[in-house]
Design goal:
single chain; 292 residues; mainly alpha; Helix Hairpins; 0% strand
Length: 292
């Protein structure tokens, strides 16, 4: 029996050394992979946080774009009103100019005199009358001339379109200014809406880019966790193996020397039994196994 025990010890002792090396390797590799898992989780969480913030900003820019687009529509309607009014005034102005030209061709030169020219001639005769140049029979000539000029002045005032044209020109200029201002307001609103749309598109592209990075980080988490779990499983298996071999060696030593198995050995055996049955041990209990 002594020779058999020695043979078992000769086989198990170097094996224990090899398994101990494997335990250390698996533990160190597992811890490194767990560190990678934590780093990748932090990276993924940070990327997801940025994605969430960017999505909020995309929604804000979408709201601004929609608001500006509504302003554009309202301003276009206002511009259309101004453009219609401008077109109407231009048409009336051209018609008035054409009408005046036709009347000018039909009337004689003397009847084309403006009210101002007729008034000037009347003032001239009045001064001559005051100077006594229309005495006696000439006074009747003065009265007749003034009566004729007065009738001509009245007719000239009725036919005078100069004031109307000036007023139409003023209305035309005002309409052109209003239409131009409305057009510029439309262009500004369109530009703001386009800026919001462009920024929204850029932010959406950035969201897609960060999401892709977050997905890669998550894939890395899954892969690293799988490696860590695999190494931990091998670590536990190696731990079970070495304690089984150590328990066997201690049992052989106790039997050869006639010593009883102490409480510490019993506790370790119990822990190994729990571990072999699939129970989860605490960190302190695993460390106790490693020490023994």
């Amino acid at each position: 029996m002594s020779m058999q025990s020695q043979d078992v010890r000769d086989v198990l002792t170097p094996r224990c050394s090899q398994v101990n090396e494997q335990i250390s390797y698996n533990r160190e590799e597992r811890d490194q992979w767990n560190s990678k898992v934590r780093a990748l989780l932090d990276q993924r969480n940070e990327l997801n946080r940025q994605v969430k913030e960017l999505i909020t900003e995309v929604q804000n820019q979408k709201g601004l774009r929609d608001e500006q687009n509504q302003i554009v529509r309202d301003l276009k309607e206002l511009r259309a009103e101004y453009s219609g009014e401008l077109k109407k005034i231009r048409t009336e102005f051209r018609e008035q100019i054409d009408k005046q030209s036709e009347e000018a061709e039909k009337e004689k030169v003397e009847k084309n005199r403006s009210p101002a020219r007729i008034r000037a001639e009347m003032d001239k005769f009045e001064k001559m009358y005051e100077q006594g140049r229309f005495l006696g029979k000439k006074e009747r000539e003065f009265l007749s001339k003034m009566k004729k000029l007065s009738a001509e002045l009245k007719s000239a005032k009725e036919n005078d379109t100069g004031g109307g044209i000036r007023e139409m020109k003023r209305d035309l200029r005002n309409a052109e200014k209003s239409q131009e201002k409305a057009h510029k307001n439309v262009e500004k609103a369109v530009s703001k809406a386009q800026d919001s749309h462009d920024l929204m598109a850029e932010l959406s592209d950035e969201v897609d880019r960060l999401r892709e990075k977050a997905n890669k980080a998550q894939a890395g988490v899954t892969r690293a966790k799988r490696e860590a779990d695999s190494l931990h499983s091998r670590y536990i298996v190696a731990l079970r193996c070495i304690h089984s071999m150590q328990d066997l060696l201690k049992t052989l030593e106790a039997r050869d020397s006639g010593d009883a198995i102490n409480d510490e050995q019993v506790e370790v055996t119990d822990l190994m039994t729990r571990l072999m049955s699939g129970d989860t041990l605490s960190t302190d209990e695993i460390m106790a196994l490693q020490r023994n």
